[in-house]
Amino acid sequence: MNLLLLGPPGAGKGTQAARLAHRYQVPKISSGEMLRDLSLRGEEGRQIAALIDQGQMVPDSTVQALIWDRLGQPDAQSGFLLDGFPRTVAQAEALDEFLRAHGRELTAAVDLDVPEEELVRRLARRRVCPQCGSSYQADPGTPGEVGRCPRDGAVLDQRPDDQPEAIRVRLGLYQHRTKPVLDYYATRGLLRRVEGDQTMEAVTEQIQRELEPDLHGGDLGR
């Protein structure tokens, strides 16, 4: 299975990607996680960190170099799940070209559709563990209260790009640059739309139902 998981910031891509990667036994490849890791290293990292903190997009060349390298690793040869990439039509076209050059093709592209007001609420409440990267929703009864990660006890942080001004920038960029990607995959018959404003379990179940026809016969590595 070669799957894309698409959707705006706050749609729950990271959570669903982890569940689906476990379900289908393929590696979860998150462009956001790789960029945040890169942002911690050297001068290029500092430049990337500044873009991320402002909610801006990182140059295609940087993102694609990371993705191509990861897709070339042994564990991704029998399938993969891309979380948050591609984010532009140019990136989608580059991904198609890369996969064709390696004798591969996409199975499907899943879009998590969530109302904008719900996205803003989720992002404003999101807190992230600086140690393991797990994300949580702050207690709505105590806005802004910082808790601890139940896995390692680290104090949870609010990402700079989850601040109100950065949220508006991110959602605006998504509308302008990333939504055309959905049309790109829809015209090719690869897009599977899923209502992301449900419980975590319900979203996972709907994704699996949508993917069943694509996985008919167990051909997960096409």
Describe this structure in words.
The protein is α/β, with parallel strands linked by helices and 222 residues long. The protein is built from 8 helices and 7 strands. A hairpin with a 6-residue loop joins strand 5 (126-128) and strand 6 (135-137). Residues 141-145 and 217-222 have low confidence and may be disordered.
Features:
alpha/beta, two-stranded antiparallel sheet, 8 helices, 222 residues, 7 strands, Rossmann fold
Shape: globular
How many runs of DSSP E, i.e. beta strands? 7
Instruction: Write down the secondary-structure element order.
Output: EHEHHHEHEHEEHEH
CATH class call: Alpha Beta
Distance between the termini: 6 Å
Q: What name is given to the CATH topology? A: Rossmann fold
> How many individual domains?
1
CATH architecture: 3-Layer(aba) Sandwich
Derived from helix and strand composition plus strand pairing, the structural class reads alpha/beta
Number of helices: 8
Helix content: 40-55%
Give the C-alpha Rg: 17 Å
Full CATH superfamily name: P-loop containing nucleotide triphosphate hydrolases
